[in-house]
């Protein structure tokens, strides 16, 4: 077992690995009463085509999510929900582009909760009847999502940016995908990806590290798994260009919403993903955040309702900087944002202020056991290791010259705009 | 370590919770009063405007920089309705001074009171530019309610039962009231009406409360009338069930069923009802509603029940296909009837108790939910966790049956997708 000390915020993360390959990350905290466990498989919505032992396999969009739904079914007409409710635990699961996570939040019955979490996720149980039944439920979930304007705008943006990248497809798949999913698709996805070598456990909160390790290792050693064939998700090649520079989304939208996105190749920056995150967090906050002159100008001119939100996301070889906002004057707002992206500014004073803010945020964010668990999941999915110390070091070391170097690499040619409103813009 | 202490004086009490569990702390000022729709609009606007700036930091930008200097402190304003009483909360969250700088604590506390007491005004009016921004932002927020079918369908269902209920206030009604307000009107409201509110302060964190309380008193040297409030909406149960179906441009139908209740005892309201709710439809997929609507019939992805204690309302909500309206209502009625008839096993009851007790313990790990229980204990004697758990363990099925007899299905509302075949609204 290894111990990783997170100096800033004073946390210890314990790491171990089972003989079958399952990785374990444990962060005990005896000040809280509850514990939060996640069991994650590195398989998400983009895994619709993969190669395994020189053969190619393919499933419809949405299978990772469909599988997540079915996982809660257990033999003898039972469900995971029944078991956990009986011991007062809160459970849930989610699927995103690259992972599916199953969670338990509780304050008692630690060993029982952990054992059952490992067991139900690693017990494949579904029938054709269950698969057909789940379709109706997932279809209603899709429709619920279609009534969420933010989701629609985000999805439209991904479709505008990417020609072939699988991130552009709904995590749930669309209704036709769902209707077309078969039990064979589910079996194939489960057997290919749900192997301990492709999974990891993260536990945060109040628990005993030695007990956790003992439970997990005993649990895993009592099971046998087929040989892991290291499926390699096929990543289609994606050009730099966007599909569409402008999309108008007509929906039941009372006040127009915009999403402006810039698509850039990560390799153009010649730096690690974490360095990019640190640099752009500072650049975007200085130029577009609450303390920026632009935000003040936009508010005073009535060009935004509230703030402009911004973010940085990675999609295989690409990173996307996006801005979204609500505005009665969407075109004027977009012009201002684009003009600012052509004219990004920084100063040493501003950089130091943002560093102070981000270091404080780190302490606050990691004070919550669920948020801390999520940070670890994100680190493992993105880089395969804990990066909190690297993040803090990069943040402390970042300076004017380093940020200037990043600014020089920014290319704004490949962008797309989505305007959502109740008329065609 | 947790130490709770109330510091009393004639104008307002300060509830303090010293705890070393968290790396953050907060200070919250709560104002409350019985209110009206018109006053609600004033309060929404005032809340936004007060948190934009103050005399010492006269722009949002300067204020934001100041918060960054205070190690990423942040302010939140919120307005919540409890029956016809509103609680307006202004809260500042900040890093425990051990992790930042002990010297900034006084300035952090002062900043919240600066925002509340020293707004950016000129000539008996709020700054006209900022007023305009806040008003336009609020207007746009109110207009966007139409985009949220769950919110719209809920409010319209409540309106079937009580047109004047604050929680039924559709944002389009508030828009009309908002149009009329001027910077002078708002300032007059702030000067005259605001002071009629009662106030209570809540502070939590690893702070030396003996030192913090005097800082609060010196910065918040105001006079409020201490009052006890009845937070509960009064209901007279009527015989007929009100029904309505309306159509708008959404993809999924939202079905909302409202059940009113009356004459509950304190034990029923504070303890028994939460068990009723968890068995019926809250918190997990092992509820009667989830079983009948989702698991057995695949009618929906999401179905739940919500116990709105202060509004004397139990609501049941499901996202369904319009065609499944009748079967969904039938399943909801089936679930309610089973509660009435006591078709609840001992196992179901015990599991519901475990679930709620677990939830109570989980709330201990969030500084705000941990501290808020003391606020509600103070305001309306809501039992603290130890007492609540003790009482929960003693509840019997017969109490749930007795409670069920006081709950009446009163309204059924569906907001369905607009299509060619259903262009007209139906009753």
Could you tell me the mean pLDDT of chain B? 93
Strands in their spatial order, largest beta sheet of chain B: 1-2-8-3-5-4
**Roughly how many Å is the radius of gyration of chain A?**
23 Å
Overall 3D geometry of chain A?
Answer: globular
Largest interface (CB < 8 Å): A-B, 65 and 62 residues
Mean pLDDT value of chain A:
96
Largest sheet of chain A: 7 strands, mixed
Sheet having the most strands of chain B: 6 strands, mixed
State the low-pLDDT regions of chain B, or none: 423-427
Helix content of chain A: 40-55%
Structure class of chain A: alpha+beta
Low-confidence stretches of chain A: none
Percentage of residues in DSSP E strands of chain A: 15-25%
Strand content of chain B: 15-25%
Count the E strands of chain A. Answer: 17
Helix/sheet category of chain B: alpha+beta
3D structure, described in words:
The complex is a heterodimer of chains A (425) and B (427). In chain A, 42% of the residues lie in helices and 24% in strands. Chain A has 425 residues and is α+β, with helices and mostly antiparallel strands. With 427 residues, chain B is an alpha+beta fold. Chain B is 43% helix and 23% strand. In chain B, the strands form 3 sheets. Chain B has a 6-stranded mixed beta sheet with strand order 1-2-8-3-5-4, with helices on both faces. A 5-stranded mixed beta sheet of chain B has the order 9-13-10-12-11, with helices on both faces. In chain B, strands 6-7 form a two-stranded antiparallel ribbon. In chain B, a hairpin with a 2-residue loop joins strand 6 and strand 7. Chain B starts with a strand and ends in a 10-residue tail after the last strand. At the A-B interface, helix 2, helix 4, helix 10 and helix 12 of A face helix 2, helix 4 and helix 12 of B.
